[in-house]
Amino acid sequence: MHTGARCAHHFFLYMSAQFLTSQVASLVLRPAPFLRRRASVEGKSQLSFRPMAAAAPASGDGLKRGIAEFYDETSGIWENMWGDHIHHGFYEANSSATLAGHREAQVRLIEEALRFAGVSDDPLKKPMRIVDVGCGLGGSSRYLAKKYGAQVQGINLSPVQAKRAQDLTIAAELADKVSFQVADALEQPFPDGQFDLVWSMESGEHMPDKEKFVREMARVAAPGGIIIIVTWCYRDLLPSEEELKPDEINLLNKICKAYYFPKLCSAADYVHIAGSLLLQDIKIADWSDNVFPFWPAVIKSALTWNGLTSLLRSGWKTIKGALVVPLMMKAFKKGLIKYTIITCRKPE
Hints:
Blueprint: H1 3-28, E1 35-39, E2 45-49, H2 60-82, H3 99-117, E3 129-133, H4 139-148, E4 151-156, H5 159-171, E5 178-182, E6 195-201, H6 210-220, E7 221-234, H7 246-259, H8 267-276, E8 280-286, H9 288-291, H10 294-302, H11 305-314, H12 316-334, E9 337-345
Parallel strand pairs: 3-4, 3-6, 4-5, 6-7
Antiparallel strand pairs: 1-2, 7-9, 8-9
Helix pairs in contact: 1-12, 2-11, 7-12, 10-12
């Protein structure tokens, strides 16, 4: 491309982005819910929430529909750019990578989560029954099925994702091992104690009731089964704090609004919930620095011709999500948003 044409191309991308920003900023930046902490009469920490904005209901069918439609709309563009793993990559701190390197980092995130949780590769101890809660396009499901030779069931609110996940699984010749269905993570369609590994990769942030979410994962886990939750949290509150600072609340509101996060909580809240359910070997880690390089890569991909035209075709939910990416980066840099892994084990 000649220099003049390249400059015109870049100018068009810039002006298009500015136009999109001006048109949808009012939609993206309305208030959304945030998590507050208050003391109960017993002096124990309790969770409470401010009301949800109308466009992203706090609970019920409206929220489920919003989440499903968001992923129905965005999955095609994501798969086109990033493949079938709809989650971050894991990097060494302060590193960067090519597109191929980013996709390798997405697989590395899965392996790091398994390592951190102590999931065994021993043929006699490895998980043979796995549920992927919030399975996306089934990237984790297929990876775990191949790694362990396991039977994997994925659940999701998005019919589009579930159908595409099944098609990709058939193409990978794994249909005898992996299956998908549309189902609610808070009311899983499985009997008690069915799975050796209960896996949730970046779905917990969509759950309106975090305690019920963890309780349901514990219910379907077999005795001795391992639970892995990789999710976005906000920072732990200081002992002197009753809630986040006003500017932090405002920033979280904008992010939650665009991404259909009805509630966020802290890693400490997850630990408290897991402990209250008598789960064992509870461990947490903050992987924010390890996943941060993924965000600049997402922005860079969105500012390509393919990325921009795909955004314009995909719909308002996708555009709003793209416009909030810089705010996610800001929240990461401020230490407000924490990319957290929580693992635990159901008692034998």
